[in-house]
Amino acid sequence: MGILDGKKGVIFGLANDRSIAHGIATAITEAGAELAITYQNEALEKRVLPLAESLGCPLVIPCDVTVEGSTESTFEKIRSAFGGLDFVVHSLAYANKEALKGPYLNVSRQDFLQALEISAYSLTQLTRAALPLMEGRAGSILTLSYLGAERAIPNYNVMGVAKAALEASVRYLAADLGPQGIRVNAISAGPIKTLSAAAIPGFSQMLDRYENRAPLRRNVTTTEVGRSALYLLSDLASGVTGEVLHVDAGYHSQGL
Ligand code: NAD
């Protein structure tokens, strides 16, 4: 018996086996959920299809949140295959590499809008599209954030501004959807070496700093983020919404 037996969900943002989405997908399929996986584009397809197969996911759908109609057609496919949905995991973000170096001050209007659209607005977009499939269910929505939402972190720049908007969206969506019994939460993960993380200059120094300063004196893994996601998506967290749970070896809790 798994704690997600009989539940159906979708995870957005699988790129490869180092993706946080992979850690989450592993934990939730092991817990018994039936899972649909989406990936951004054809370039990722040959990596994603075998991973989805090894996870036993019956539904694998391309979805680019910036492409008109892509989100709607994704949820239509999920409706045909699953009938409804118990949870949605939003594990995607993007900012132009150029905006992730030097002073934040220099961010262009285009880079700002693109980062905010893909990394923050998309949560609201996906949530709205998922709602009709969650009718009558105690749904759960989860997104991924980082400490750069709360504090200025060198080079995180416009992504920090986008994550601040994302965390605020979690609180507003929790207020909107709470009366229907739908919960909305975020995990603020510590740094993990993934494809997206590679775009941040000085990322390996960030990993070293966490290893030296975090209370647990190490970095976290996608498996650990996956297990915390399992808690937030399951009935174990039935009283938790509007929350940003730090899964970062305790780093955020420390001062000097
Ligand atoms: P990743 O590169 O494996 O995943 C990012 C995903 O976003 C990719 O699958 C990519 O295809 C997808 N994506 C980008 N633009 C998209 C679009 N227009 N439409 C659909 N999908 C799109 O990296 P990750 O580190 O696993 O990132 C997952 C989430 O975790 C992101 O929100 C990231 O900001 C967050 N996060 C990462 C870290 C870290 O250190 N890796 C720490 C905290 C939070």
Task: Characterize the structure shown.
- It is a single chain.
- The chain is an alpha/beta fold and 256 residues long.
- The protein has one domain: NAD(P)-binding Rossmann-like Domain (Rossmann fold, 3-Layer(aba) Sandwich).
- It has seven helices and seven strands, in the order βαβαβαβαβαβααβ.
- The chain has helices at residues 20-30, 42-55, 70-82, 109-130, 157-177, 203-213, 222-233, and strands at residues 8-12, 34-39, 59-62, 87-90, 140-145, 183-189, 244-247.
- A seven-stranded parallel β-sheet has the order 3-2-1-4-5-6-7, with helices on both faces.
- The chain starts with 7 loop residues before the first strand and ends in a 9-residue tail after the last strand.
- The model has no long low-confidence stretch (mean pLDDT 97).
- Bound molecules: nicotinamide-adenine-dinucleotide.
- Nicotinamide-adenine-dinucleotide binds next to helix 1 and strand 5.
At a glance:
The chain has helices at residues 20-30, 42-55, 70-82, 109-130, 157-177, 203-213, 222-233; strands at residues 8-12, 34-39, 59-62, 87-90, 140-145, 183-189, 244-247.
Shape: globular
| Fraction in beta strands | 5-15%
Mean pLDDT: 97
The Cα radius of gyration reads: 17 Å
Side by side, the strands of the main sheet go 3-2-1-4-5-6-7
List the helices and strands and how they pair.
Elements lengths: L7 E5 L7 H11 L3 E6 L2 H14 L3 E4 L7 H13 L4 E4 L18 H22 L9 E6 L11 H21 L5 E7 L13 H11 L8 H12 L10 E4 L9
Parallel strand pairs: 1-2, 1-4, 2-3, 4-5, 5-6, 6-7
Helix pairs in contact: 1-7, 4-5
Bound molecules: nicotinamide-adenine-dinucleotide (NAD).
